[in-house]
Design a protein that fits this description.
The protein is mainly α. 85% of the residues lie in helices and 0% in strands. It is built from 23 helices and no strands. Helix 14 (325-352) packs parallel to helix 21 and helix 21 runs antiparallel to helix 22.
């Protein structure tokens, strides 16, 4: 069972990590094509879309994963199949309703970020246009997400992983090809290019759904519901099923909204708070866009926590339903240790190399000095993002969903209050500090609840962090020394932009190489695998 858990986790981790890597790699050419102003417009469309998508799915994909895992562990395999048939109809209906809602709310949402008549940057009409185009994706993403939850609940992480990667590849190709074609082949406007780009969500979702349907037909005989179709099964009524799902789903919706909520708070408050502090709208939009770009980079290592959480919930649910608290504790420990082994060096490296990383990815025309400073401050947030994601997953797995919601709510209140208080005084650093404070409050609350309910031995949990920490310190020394030597040798020889590529590439390879080699030589990797395998 542990090997199956690890295999599924690595499937989803690899797919989610690759998806995130692709998700920030394409930003570089996209920003070069549409510019800072175009990317800000793109962000205005995706911020409300992300929230509406969570409403559209009702958290059901993850709730389905938990539901199917629970009934499979009890031997009622047919329950998951019944759920899939009814859930797909519900998701299609929710997709239509949320599409209509976002389409008709677009003018009101646009008024929050840009006042009607203001033409110093993007216009109100531009924002309405892109929000309405991206809303079309709501018709296809909810049923696609539902099918992913069904696969995950049956411990089949491969189809979900492959569909995630395919969705991202198709979306990115459509965004880049579409925006380039509009601007440089058809001589369109930047607004039209961004509008076409937002359609990438629909096209990518359609490709992903097609692949999942193919897997479903191809693997039918592998599902327990089909292998045991002649066994006893009492059909579950729709209303009791919906009630149980809702009890799972609402916490999934709210907890899944954590990062989008924080992003939306920034997107919809930074412009007004900075313009009130003396910034022009164009300057405020630049800060807004750069914070969004930094978030994309930080969320790359955080994708590890997302993948761990997806596979953790159905596994913990199965063990918890059978009363096997030792297995619950083991899975919590193995997830935490594996996450920290990969996350800590990634976050530290991004902090140390923030300037060359930002410059090499987004270019010298996108405020590299400001971007590097924001990224350096934002990068350590990856640890709190990840701890919150995993802690919330643990609480959902042991049926403590309400506590996860309370923890999120406390953090959001802190974030909103501190944004208003700090941005007028600390400007672009204000929202970052507010995010730290909000997530810190949430993580502390969730951790306390977990400790009270699972009784994880904290000393045993933290003990493996000591050798990991020592390896990270060694990696830091190597990265700092490598950057210094490369700058010393090439500053007067190579221009700043290619130099940033060289520094990033050489320093990352040197730091990661030393970290992995020394970890292997000292037996750290073997120790982690043995304890968690």
């Amino acid at each position: 069972m542990k090997n199956q858990f690890l295999k599924g986790t690595f499937y989803l981790t690899g797919a989610t990590f690759l998806s995130k890597i692709l998700g920030f790699i394409y930003i570089m050419p996209f920003v070069l094509i549409v510019g800072d102003s175009g990317y800000a417009l793109y962000k205005y469309a995706y911020a409300p879309y992300t929230l509406m998508l969570s409403v559209a799915t009702l958290g059901l994909p993850m709730a389905v994963s938990k539901y199917v895992a629970k009934y499979n562990s009890l031997g009622d395999y047919q329950a998951g199949r019944d759920l899939l048939n009814k859930g797909l109809k519900l998701m299609m209906g929710m997709g239509v309703l949320t599409f209509l809602a976002l389409f008709f709310l677009a003018p009101s949402l646009a008024s929050v970020v840009i006042k009607e008549g203001d033409v110093s940057g993007n216009t109100h009409e531009d924002v309405v246009y892109v929000i309405r185009l991206v809303s079309i994706a709501l018709l296809i993403i909810p049923p696609m997400s539902m099918m992913r939850g069904f696969f995950q609940g049956n411990q089949q992480m491969g189809p979900s992983a492959f569909s995630t990667v395919l969705e991202q590849i198709v979306r990115i190709l459509f965004i880049l090809a579409g925006s380039f074609a509009v601007l440089y082949i058809f001589n369109g406007t930047a607004t039209q290019a961004v509008g076409i780009s937002t359609m990438g969500a629909f096209v990518g979702g359609l490709a992903s759904l097609g692949l999942l349907v193919w897997f479903y037909v191809k693997r039918k005989d592998l599902f327990p519901a089909f292998r045991n179709k002649h066994g006893e099964h009492q059909p579950i009524e729709w209303l009791p099923m919906l009630k149980e799902l809702t009890s799972y789903a609402i916490p999934f919706v709210l907890v899944g909204l954590a990062i989008p909520l924080y992003q939306n708070i920034d997107t919809f408050t930074i412009n007004n708070l900075l313009t009130n502090a003396g910034y022009s709208l164009m300057e405020a939009e630049q800060v807004n866009a750069i914070i969004g770009l930094a978030q994309i980079l930080v969320l790359v290592p955080v994708s590890l926590a997302t993948a761990f959480s997806i596979s953790l919930i159905p596994n913990i649910t199965g063990s918890f339903s059978k009363g096997d608290m030792k297995d619950v504790t083991d899975k919590v420990k193995q997830t935490f240790i594996l996450l920290m082994f990969v996350l800590l060096p990634a976050v530290v490296g991004m902090t140390l190399l923030s300037d060359p990383i930002y410059t090499s990815i987004f270019g010298e025309n996108n405020q590299p000095e400001l971007g590097g400073r924001i990224l350096a401050w934002y990068a350590p947030m990856g640890i709190l993002f990840s701890l919150f994601s995993v802690a919330a997953a643990i609480l959902q797995g042991i049926n403590k969903q309400k506590q996860a919601i309370i923890g999120l709510g406390l953090g959001v209140v802190v974030k909103v209050i501190l944004n208003a208080l700090l941005i007028p005084h600390f400007y672009e650093l204000g929202p970052i500090i507010a995010t730290y404070a909000g997530y810190f409050v949430s993580v502390c609350y969730l951790t306390a609840v977990i400790y009270r309910n699972v009784k994880i031995p904290v000393v045993k949990l933290l003990k493996p962090l000591v050798p990991i920490g020592l390896m990270v310190v060694l990696m830091m020394v190597v990265v700092i020394a490598t950057e210094f030597l490369v700058r010393l040798a090439l500053t007067d020889v190579v221009a700043n932009y290619p130099l940033s590529f060289i520094i990033t590439g050489v320093s990352v390879l040197a730091g990661a190489g030393v970290y992995l080699v020394v970890s292997k030589q000292t037996g750290l990797i073997r120790l982690i695998v043995r304890r968690n395998g």
